[in-house]
């Protein structure tokens, strides 16, 4: 391999993985995490929840379907860096417009290929997600100097990132057909398929910046409030948590997903913590405590709520329960309030490219609003 095409992934514990430059050349820093999805890499790359993370794909072949103009979950790639084993040399899909490599280069995303991602994933699983850097081109340096740069980068714990990915201005996504409800969606890193799922159910979605005041939200007279997914440490979300408490006090139907689940949980009095390596993929089982039903879900989170499966607890707004959990590790995957109309889950019911087991949760949100109307 020529020096021009050489690249290195450097972890904060000093481990270095060599490979080939992929995408843009240069240096990028972030938290190294692994994603177990075997498809949907375009959705992963454009998911704002991956802001400031270097994503390792566990699937060995990436880029087979190229890059199209329809599947983006936002208006840009948000990952800090990208790590793959065997990139496709020639994409094959009727919707493909360019290669993944070309799109990464076009958007300035520094990546690395030809990495032993199986060994890397096992390392992160044992040692935990950690700060890392991808270096190529003129940014390549001695191992010691590259490790120093990684150690000087900010940690994910304590990172307040929602404000960096939220919309600058409010916007409206009209309902398909007759408008039945108006929902205020707090954009903490929302994916484009989320409003799309709601509009199919007759919901007019008002997407709001993360710093929207309670007065501005209430002025919309929403039938419901939605808390989106997003990046960073939920312990930094004082504003969103306070806004959620206002919604609970007014007993406006509320539905949260992912980051929104953590915010609702904190509003109800639960704590949060950073997981060792998180849940990232489209094949993660979740059990509904009330029914025992198992759903296969898409997830992307490195923080979780404290609590035990099925645990009931008293909140400032009445009784509540840990409603869902992951049987792999008993991680909290959902909360539900009984005395106010609010519930949330830690996964993506709007998941693209799938699975779709959790899509009926949007119908449950509609039912909450119907009961309140």
UniProtKB/TrEMBL annotation:
The active site is at residues 258, 348, 350. Pfam families: CPSase_sm_chain, GATase. CDD domains: GATase1_CPSase (cd01744). The keyword Electron transport does not apply. Pathway: Pyrimidine metabolism; UMP biosynthesis via de novo pathway; (S)-dihydroorotate from bicarbonate: step 1/3; Amino-acid biosynthesis; L-arginine biosynthesis; carbamoyl phosphate from bicarbonate: step 1/1. L-glutamine binds at residues 49, 230, 232, 259, 262, 300, 302-303. Belongs to the CarA family. This is Carbamoyl phosphate synthase small chain. The gene is carA.
């Amino acid at each position: 391999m020529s020096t021009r095409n050489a690249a290195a992934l450097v972890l904060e514990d000093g481990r270095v993985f060599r490979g080939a430059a992929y995408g843009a050349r240069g240096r990028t820093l972030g938290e190294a995490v692994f994603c177990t999805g075997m498809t949907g890499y375009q959705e992963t790359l454009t998911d704002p929840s991956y802001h400031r993370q270097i994503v390792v794909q566990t699937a060995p072949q990436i880029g087979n379907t190229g890059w199209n103009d329809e599947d983006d979950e936002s208006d840009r790639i948000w990952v800090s860096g990208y790590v793959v084993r065997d990139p496709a040399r020639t994409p094959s899909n009727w919707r493909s417009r360019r290669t993944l490599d070309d799109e990464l280069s076009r958007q300035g995303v520094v990546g690395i290929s030809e990495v032993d991602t199986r060994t890397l994933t096992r390392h992160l699983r044992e040692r935990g997600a950690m700060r890392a850097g991808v270096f190529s081109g003129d940014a390549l340096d001695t191992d010691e100097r590259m490790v120093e740069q990684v150690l000087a980068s900010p940690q994910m714990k304590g990172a307040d990132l929602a404000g960096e990915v939220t919309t600058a201005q409010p916007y409206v996504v009209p309902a398909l057909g007759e408008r039945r409800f108006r929902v205020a969606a707090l954009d903490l890193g929302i994916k484009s398929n989320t409003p799309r799922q709601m509009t199919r159910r007759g919901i007019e979605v008002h997407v709001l910046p993360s710093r929207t005041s309670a007065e501005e939200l209430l002025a919309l007279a929403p039938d419901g409030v939605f808390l989106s997914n997003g990046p960073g440490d939920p312990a930094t979300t004082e504003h969103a948590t306070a806004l959620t408490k206002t919604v609970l006090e007014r007993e406006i139907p509320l539905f949260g997903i992912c980051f929104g689940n953590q915010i609702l949980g904190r509003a109800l009095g639960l704590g949060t913590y950073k997981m060792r390596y998180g849940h990232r993929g489209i094949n993660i089982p979740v059990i509904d405590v009330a029914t025992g039903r198992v759903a296969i879900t898409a997830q992307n989170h490195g923080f979780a709520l404290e609590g035990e499966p099925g645990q009931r607890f008293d909140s400032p707004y009445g009784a509540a329960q840990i409603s869902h959990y992951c049987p792999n590790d008993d991680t909290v995957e959902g909360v539900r309030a009984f005395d106010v109309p609010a519930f949330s889950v830690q996964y993506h019911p709007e998941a693209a490219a799938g699975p779709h087991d959790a899509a009926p949760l949007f119908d449950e949100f509609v039912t909450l609003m119907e009961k309140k109307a």
